[in-house]
Design brief:
By secondary structure, the chain is an all-alpha fold. It has 2 domains: 1-175, no CATH class; 178-421, no CATH class. 77% of the residues lie in helices and 0% in strands.
Length: 421
């Protein structure tokens, strides 16, 4: 986030906007190559004795599909960024999903960290010393770190580094079509929105949207890492409730930071030049709450193979998001439309999931915990009224609030029959 903040403030606008488009395209490739087949493979790899055979089939399918995606790079004469479809095989060789399925979340987290940190740190160095080559540096670093981490994953799992393509393996994608649609919908509630927004906003607004949505993805990723660590227990309501409470607490700290200390929070993570975009970030924080309040339902529904129902809800949420976006764009072209649409879509998605998959008691337990956490925001609010919007007051008040929450709500956060997280 600090690198993105620096680039947004000091980098060449066109270069940073290019990184935004390339990153959203890479995320699209990851979602397309994984599609529903990868989620189904995770379910199989998690519990099967012959998991290496299951992984081999999945990897063959991923690599085969990537070969068919590479020719899309020929369209680069129309859009220069399509050239990065050539990275499809590098992405397809990654079997990081198997790390979580086989109970190695720490290794998976390090891999994910390297894949984010290495390209951005390389980009930061390029911005300092080679400002005209920021975008190229980002793309080369992304390819190299994927190759390196792919080797690390294969070594850790004791599986082959690569598999040969097999046309027959593509049947796995057809057999898991609903899951594929769901995963693409998940992609849309993040950087996928930029694929639509790029046609309506200028480069500056795309930059702020990219930085903010990247932050949002990091937040959602943190919650998913917790869920992946306990994926083999996510059918248990007690486990799901504890994980949701952790997610709710994180989301309240997130939205509270924006609502109570907007100048400090935006300045620290995004840059002072975006301080006038208050509503943009408020909608982003509210989206985090909507996503978090019963985020475990996403994983549990997939584990219970409720694919068809889940797909219909996810598609409906995407359609609602697009409707809000295209209606609002008729009245204003400010960037807050992006996060407003995201908030409406996430809220619709959450409500629909609750109606279909949760009992009234399960909903009440989560909303009660949300209310308790929201009441805790009185502490930083009073601190701000006393000393104004300052970095020290922000860090001290929210740090103290976090500690108090962990102490007072500890019993509600600990997973049953689990020593710690």
């Amino acid at each position: 986030m600090l690198v993105l903040k620096y680039l947004a403030k000091y980098g060449q606008v066109a270069q940073v906007a290019g990184i935004a488009e390339v990153d959203s395209l890479i995320q699209f490739l990851i979602g397309l190559i994984g599609f529903g087949m990868q989620t189904d493979a995770i379910r199989s790899i998690s519990f099967a004795d012959d998991w290496k055979d299951q992984l081999a089939k999945a990897q063959q399918a991923r690599i085969t599909l990537s070969c068919f995606l590479m020719p899309v790079a020929l369209l680069s004469f129309h859009n220069q960024y399509f050239i990065y479809f050539l990275l499809a095989p590098v992405i397809a060789f990654s079997s990081d999903y198997a790390l979580y399925a086989r109970g190695f979340p720490l290794v998976g987290s390090w891999v994910a960290f390297l894949r984010v940190a290495a390209p951005l740190l390389s980009t930061l160095l390029a911005a300092l010393f080679f400002p005209n080559h920021v975008l190229v540096t980002y793309c080369i670093a992304t390819a190299l770190v994927y190759i390196l981490t792919n080797a690390i994953i294969a070594w850790h799992l004791k599986t082959p580094f690569y598999y040969l393509p097999n046309l027959g393996s593509l049947k796995l994608y057809l057999n898991t079509l609903p899951l594929g649609v769901i995963n693409l919908c998940f992609y849309f509630f993040g950087l996928g929105l930029l694929l639509v927004a790029q046609f309506f906003f200028d480069e500056r607004e795309l930059i702020i949207s990219f930085v903010a949505l990247k932050f949002y993805l990091i937040y959602k990723g943190a919650i998913r890492v917790i869920q992946q660590a306990f994926v083999n227990r996510m059918k248990e309501e007690a486990v799901c409730l504890s994980i949701d409470r952790i997610s709710i607490m994180m989301s309240v700290l997130f939205v509270g930071s924006i609502a109570i200390f907007p100048t400090t929070f935006i300045g620290i993570f995004f840059g002072d030049q975006f301080n006038n975009e208050y509503l943009f970030f408020v909608f982003l924080g509210c989206s985090a709450v909507s996503f978090s309040v019963w985020s475990s339902v996403n994983t549990r529904a997939l584990l219970e193979r409720q694919d068809q129902t889940f797909m219909k809800i996810a598609l409906s949420a995407v359609i609602i998001t697009l409707i809000v976006f295209f209606v609002m764009i008729q009245f204003t072209h400010t960037s807050k439309i992006i996060t407003l649409s995201l908030f409406v879509g996430e809220t619709f998605f959450a409500v629909a999931l609750a109606i279909r998959f949760l009992t009234l008691n399960q909903i009440v337990l989560r909303l009660q915990f949300l209310l308790v956490c929201v009441m805790g925001l009185a502490l930083p609010w009073v601190a701000k009224m006393w000393k104004s919007d300052q970095v020290f007051i922000y860090l001290t008040s929210f740090g103290l609030l976090g500690i108090l929450m962990l102490i007072l709500l500890r019993k509600k956060l600990i997973l049953p029959q689990t020593v710690n997280l």
